[in-house]
User: Which sequence fits this backbone?
């Protein structure tokens, strides 16, 4: 049995790539580190990433001339100028180091084969001679929205291999991992975080962990879209929620939600962008390659927001294949050939066989855009420190570090996890003191009591009331229908009201099972209120943002509006408030002034203010929004 | 009548170690089959509509995270990947043996695999520290592919559950453990010496503990080439013994 109150130097909530990479940096510096995870770390959703990890190594012919500057530019364009450019810069500069370090940890990256190679590019089979001097270096594949081939990959199991390699380091360093443990409450005094309360998913018991530094690395929250997501069932956003529940820490850009073009219909299981990167096509019901007309330059490899919108439009226009599960389009990878599919895209080949019973070398694959990535999350500064709360950090998909702005490029997320993990881990290692933890245990006891009472209250409710699963399904329908790819003011207004109602319903949930132990129904019921809160913030931010930027598309405001909306949404929610408080901060200093992305719509509303003036107000605007001072560079 | 015309009967092993009242028993549930129904869908339907206390583990629901190993009609499989259309209309579900029971179909594979990784030191034993300034060391793509093939194990535990030796000897590395050892042994970045490898591989808990019935090979959902893996380890053991 775990003691009721324990302590550590660094508490990392989340055992995915971001959390573990951060943990090993702090542990290697000699700190005592504890990782909490809902599942054994190797089962975290990072393991499901298939296609690749962006780093400008420039190792193959189609990557010639690539460097971190080009990667940085692609990232800013991809973000539709919503990113914090200083962070995108730090990211692009460090991605090559972080990816090579993974080679050092053992990732079996696919390598360049010197000599003649055959690739599919824009529908043509081409022969390319790779330089012999590059033989054996890390190979790249093409991904959407990038000027060069840049994604480093291990078959179609990049996330799996990366996570296993990083977890092997965690084991080597002897870092303690408590799995089947859920952080349910942060311990804090309103300005400083001192750890978290954890609920054991074996026994249902609560315990408090005091820490000098606490890191939220809990991944995305795609499950606020219910089953309409590529995310795992464990991606419920509890890390973002416990930060929000402090009432002080803001979440950034929650309305920025990515839909991936190629999830299988109907299961929502993803097949990687690497399918199109390696030369796959999208076809409509007539077998027509509509992306060639829609985006002559990038074709299937425009950014995800753009491709997903064209697909949704194509289906609205009646060119989808109708089924009882709704319409879908086709992904065609037949021409890549059996051998390529069974090696470089092996995981895709297996998924098609196991979940659809088809062979992608022979048959078309039914796909449709599906919720995939949460650009929004716990708002942090460039060093990963949460706004308004000292001692609290966030990394990976759970954070809004903000290198992605309103659309993340494929392959940039895996790379973010290890770059942010490395840098923020280093920051923590340097700032966490060597002495004992100076904190009143009162805060821990209070947080512990709050968590225990919440569970007891739910268990004690009697009579008739809604079920947590029913609320989840209702939330999912609101989100996919009204806060999806195409949004408008009427729908969003209704969504906000309906989610508000669902939030009230959460307070009336009555359980049907009162078994001792973790009690799966109780476990989920404790989460659903938090999920509805995240959904509500997403809808409310989307309603307020009367422009279209990246993945956020308003049919009633179809233009990007750099005069009024070159900013980041921040949402805070105090316990007693009926609605979240929404405010804005400048995106960050503009090094690349807003312009055309090179794909998608060119029309936009220009900035009214000179860039120099915009840049002058950034620091002050962000500080007013709660950004903690950043001393020096990382 | 269900959409596929079948009503399915699930007989599920039930036991909640946290509940002093609970005794191990089998419980039956009936649901209608729907097209494309996986055990992931079926078990969630049972939990959400029939018995909210039922424990089981799923995460990715796409056969990549390894959470959902379970015995289905006596065979260890991934629940999420198993379609009801491939099963008879009576389906018996048990938790995986060997691993510690958490409750009902849920078992603790995490602790088992962490201990295995610690025992066999399943990480790259690098000779030199990482140099952030240097480009990556080269590797032949064929070799990278070979390492990747065995790196693909998702630690689901199906093979361990099927292995007669692992079922009786807690110390045996088990099929997934042997595969993990081979994965590092073939990786030139791991600089362990022959003597060190001999220690790990060549004892009754290593490759010589395996009695070669190959039950493991048939159940691996990732189709790992376990046969080749053991042959490789035996060769390595013999060469290091010299
Ligand atoms: C199917 C799929 C394919 C993808 N493919 C790619 C790709 O090819 N390239 C790319 O760049 N990106 C890809 N992505 C995105 C990328 O994989 C993720 O953004 C990234 O892996 C997230 O890593 P993470 O460490 O932030 O979170 P995760 O890996 O999701 O880890 C979250 C961790 O937090 C733990 N946790 C959660 N809540 C709690 C809590 N309350 N208490 C304790 N622990 C908690 C979980 O147990 C888990 O260990 C893909 C995503 C999906 C869904
Ligand atoms: S072949 Fe060896 S490892 Fe595989 S099941 Fe048989 S005894 Fe176990
Ligand atoms: S070897 Fe296969 S069956 Fe065994 S744990 Fe790995 S993936 Fe599962
Ligand atoms: S749920 Fe991940 S393998 Fe089945």
Assistant:
């Amino acid at each position: 049995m775990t003691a009721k109150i324990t302590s550590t130097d660094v508490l990392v909530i989340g055992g995915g790539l971001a959390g573990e990479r951060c943990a090993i940096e702090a542990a290697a510096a000699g700190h005592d580190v504890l990782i909490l995870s809902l599942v054994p770390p190797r089962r975290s959703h990072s393991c499901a990433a298939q296609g690749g990890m962006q780093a400008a190594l420039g190792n193959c012919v189609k990557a010639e001339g690539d460097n971190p500057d080009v990667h940085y530019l692609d990232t800013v364009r991809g973000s539709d100028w919503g990113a914090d450019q200083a962070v995108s810069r730090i990211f692009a500069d460090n991605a090559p180091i972080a990816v090579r370090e993974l080679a050092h940890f053992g990732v079996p990256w696919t390598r360049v084969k010197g000599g003649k190679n055959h690739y599919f590019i824009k529908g043509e089979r081409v022969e390319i001679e790779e330089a012999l001097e590059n033989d054996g270096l890390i190979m790249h594949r093409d991904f959407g929205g990038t000027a060069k081939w840049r994604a480093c990959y291990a078959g179609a199991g990049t996330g799996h291999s990366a996570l296993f390699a990083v977890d092997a380091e965690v084991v080597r360093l002897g870092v303690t991992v408590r799995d089947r443990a859920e952080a349910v409450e942060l311990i804090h005094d309103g300005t400083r975080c001192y750890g978290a309360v954890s609920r054991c998913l074996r026994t249902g018991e609560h315990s408090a962990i005091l820490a000098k530094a606490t890191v939220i690395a809990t991944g995305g929250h795609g499950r606020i879209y219910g089953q309409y997501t590529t995310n795992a069932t464990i991606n419920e956003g509890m890390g973002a929620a416990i930060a929000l529940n402090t009432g002080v820490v803001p979440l950034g850009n929650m309305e920025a939600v990515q839909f991936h073009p190629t999830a299988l219909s109907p299961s929502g299981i993803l097949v990687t962008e690497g399918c199109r990167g390696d030369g796959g096509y999208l076809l409509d019901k007539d077998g027509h390659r509509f992306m060639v007309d829609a985006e002559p330059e990038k074709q299937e490899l425009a950014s995800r927001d753009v491709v997903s919108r064209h697909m949704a439009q194509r289906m609205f226009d009646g060119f989808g294949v109708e089924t009882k599960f709704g319409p879908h389009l086709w992904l065609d990878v037949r021409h890549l050939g059996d051998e390529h599919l069974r090696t470089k895209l092996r995981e895709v080949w297996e998924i098609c066989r196991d979940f659809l019973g088809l062979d992608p070398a022979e048959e078309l694959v039914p796909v449709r855009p599906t919720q995939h990535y949460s650009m929004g999350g716990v708002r942090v500064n460039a060093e990963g420190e949460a706004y308004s709360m000292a001692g609290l950090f966030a990394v990976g998909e759970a954070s809004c570090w903000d290198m992605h702005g309103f659309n993340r490029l494929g392959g940039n997320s895996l790379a973010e996890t290890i770059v942010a993990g490395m840098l923020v881990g280093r920051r923590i290692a340097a700032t966490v003191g060597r002495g004992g933890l100076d904190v009143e245990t009162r805060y821990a006891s209070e947080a512990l009591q709050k968590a225990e009472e919440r569970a007891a209250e739910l268990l004690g409710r009697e009579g008739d009331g809604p079920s947590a699963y029913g609320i989840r399904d209702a939330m999912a329908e609101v989100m996919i229908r009204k806060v999806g790819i195409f949004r408008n003011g009427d729908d969003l207004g209704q969504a906000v009201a309906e989610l508000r109602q669902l939030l009230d319903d959460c307070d009336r949930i009555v359980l049907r099972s009162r078994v001792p132990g973790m009690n799966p129904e109780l476990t989920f019921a404790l989460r659903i209120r938090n999920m509805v809160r995240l959904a509500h913030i997403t809808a409310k931010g989307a309603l307020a943002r009367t422009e279209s930027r990246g993945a956020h598309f308003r049919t009633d405001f179809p233009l990007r509006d750099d005069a009024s909306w070159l900013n980041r949404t921040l949402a805070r929610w105090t316990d007693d408030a009926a609605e979240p408080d929404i405010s804005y901060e400048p995106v960050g200093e503009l090094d690349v002034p807003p312009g055309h992305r090179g794909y998608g719509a060119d029309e936009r509303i220009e900035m009214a203010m000179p860039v120099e003036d915009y840049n002058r107000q950034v620091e002050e605007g962000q500080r007013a929004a709660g950004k903690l001072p950043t001393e020096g560079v990382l | 009548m269900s959409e596929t015309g079948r009503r399915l009967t699930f007989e599920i092993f039930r036991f909640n170690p946290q509940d002093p009242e609970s005794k191990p028993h089998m419980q039956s549930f009936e649901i209608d089959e729907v097209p494309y129904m996986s055990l992931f869908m079926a078990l969630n339907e049972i939990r959400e509509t029939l018995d909210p206390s039922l424990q089981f583990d799923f995460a990715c629901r796409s056969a990549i995270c390894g959470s959902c190993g379970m015995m289905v009609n006596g065979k260890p499989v991934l629940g999420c990947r198993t379609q009801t259309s491939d099963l008879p209309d009576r389906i018996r579900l048990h938790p995986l043996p060997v691993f510690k029971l958490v409750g009902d179909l849920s078992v603790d594979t995490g602790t088992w695999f962490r201990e295995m990784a610690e025992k066999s030191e399943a990480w790259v034993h690098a000779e030199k520290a990482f140099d952030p300034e240097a480009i990556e060391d080269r590797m032949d793509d064929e070799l990278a592919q070979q390492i990747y093939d065995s790196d693909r194990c998702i630690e689901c535990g199906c093979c361990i559950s099927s292995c007669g030796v692992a079922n009786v000897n807690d110390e045996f590395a088990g099929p997934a453990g042997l595969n993990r050892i081979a994965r590092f042994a073939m990786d030139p970045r791991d600089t362990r010496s022959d003597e060190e490898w001999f220690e790990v591989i060549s004892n009754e808990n290593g490759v010589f503990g395996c009695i070669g019935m190959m039950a493991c090979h048939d159940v691996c959902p990732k189709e790992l080439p376990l046969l080749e893996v053991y042959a490789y380890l035996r060769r390595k053991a013999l060469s290091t013994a010299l």
Chain A has a mean pLDDT of 95. The pocket of iron/sulfur cluster (ligand 2) is lined by residues B 162-166, 175, 210-216 (CB under 6 Å). Chain A has 16 helices and 25 strands.
